[in-house]
Specification:
Helix content: 55-70%
Low-confidence stretches: none
Mean pLDDT: 87
Strand order of the largest sheet: 2-1-3-4
CATH topology of the largest domain: Peroxidase, domain 1
Largest sheet: 4 strands, mixed
Number of helices: 8
Amino acid sequence: MKDQIIVKRYAEAFFDFASKSIGEKKVFEEFKNIKGVMRENRGFMKILISPEITLNEKMNFVDRVLNDNFSEEFKQFLKLLVEKERIEKLEAIAEYIRITYSYGEEAEALLKTTYALDLELINKIKNKLEAKFRKKFKLYIDLDGTLLGGIQIIIGNRVIDGSVRRRLDDLREKLESLRLN
């Protein structure tokens, strides 16, 4: 819970600041691009997290690697994360920005179910999601027999789990805690 609060605070503070100077679209684009950099270059985060590398070397590394491909505001934000020892939260911050501020873009959601659903029910689920999150969703459907029934929806790093499997697991935990007392 504490990590979620930290991620939200840094993401919203930077978005509020940078959207005024470089624009919302550019902020969104830079977070998308940094996720690509992290995915393609596994050593990128290792260098920024490493305790053996000095703070000054990490700052120079950010400038060298991101050079003209990223705004000064974004590079300063990464340096702040490094300085405050919060750089390991970068991916979660990028995901928060993507989910929260992707105006006009369809967000992707994975709908897991144990059996095929009819189109009317899928549209009902999609409409409920769009109303709750106030954005358009592109649903992908995955048949997953391990759920035993019900549905599970995955949006970014958020999981809405209404599966029978989860309910059985919850019940098992309650019974085990009763047995221990």
